[in-house]
Amino acid sequence: MRLKPGALLRFYSLCGILIQGSQGQFPLTQNVTVVEGGTANLTCRVDQNDNTSLQWSNPAQQTLYFDDKKALRDNRIELVRASWHELSISVSDVSLSDEGQYTCSLFTMPVKTSKAFLTVLGVPEKPQITGFTSPVMEGERMQLTCKTSGSKPAADIRWFKNDKEVKDVKYLKEEDANRKTFTVSSTLDFLADRNDDGAVVSCRVDHESLNATPQIAMQVLEIHYTPLVKIISSNSWPEEGQSIILTCESKGKPVPEPVLWTKDGGELPDPERMVVNGRVLSISFLNKTDNGTYRCEAKNPIGRNSTEYVLIVHDVFNTLLPTTVIPSLTTATVTTTVALTASTTTSATAISTRGTYLTNEAKGAEDAPDADTAIINAEGSQVNAEEKKEYFI
User: Fold this and answer.
1) Among 31, 153, 168, 379, which one is least packed by beta carbons within 10 Å?
2) What average pLDDT does the segment 128-145 reach?
3) Mean of the per-residue pLDDT values for the chain?
4) Which long-range contacts (CB under 8 A, 24 or more apart) does 263-272 make?
5) Distance of CA 100 to CAs 61, 87, 90, Å?
């Protein structure tokens, strides 16, 4: 029997619709990642479905749900949504053993399937820092180890000292007994230094399961060291009659005991003027006998240290500068120095007066006892005096 052209066209069109419908019946799934202990949602969708059943099965090929009917007795598995176009289930309190490939099946002829891989992240345990014994002596080698277990994949460990990252560290990764998770450790190795006393050393564990909130362990360092000593003077130019205060600053851990003051290797010679109050040495009414080397010594149970200060007491008035006579010249230079003490300062100001004068040889007076007399006698007319004058600027 032959079909008419119009009936034949309608037949081919119907076959095309059936083929297109069959091709559209294909399940769609997505891979899922969940943190251990969390809830995984598995969804299977079909764009076009002619009342064909959907099914979820686990990695062991056990059926979990067939349409809206639960097949596996597991209280953690629940139905979220069931229709001709979707089958969604949830798995709560996910464990590492739940990880694997899950299958959604569409029961057409033949059966069509889609795979979804469930990845379970192992959460690293809170890290711990070991290897620190308090206190640590300066110069000793310190080895601090930070360790965390149970991470999947292996966690990352970073070290910080006072919020500044320390790069030169050792890292070790080991597989746990369950062959799924990892134990990671990192070691920070350095020599104890007094500058590290009170520093905060932190170990930070980063992992994708922590949602950008790292786990941190901290350790405050306690370093013991010998005292560091220096002397501070209250007067940079001490003069006779003044006073001076010498302060001995000492820093150490444990805190140094009261300091010991000595002068020139012995006890302070004048306790009435040289008074020690804690770390401060006060000397009143300075004189030349106070010149010398003053030592401050501080000690603690770790050791001792000292420093010195050389005291030079200066004259209140500068002495008269000596006259320099040059034999080859017929004139001499005289500089008269006057010392003035200002009322608002203890330093002396030297004023030099300069002029012209005639030497004994110039004025021809053999009886002039000194240069000043020569100057006075030279006032007036002298033979050849003009040639033997010396001018000062």
Assistant:
1) 168
2) 94
3) 81
4) 263/292, 263/293, 263/294, 263/295, 264/292, 264/293, 265/293, 265/295
5) 11, 19, 15
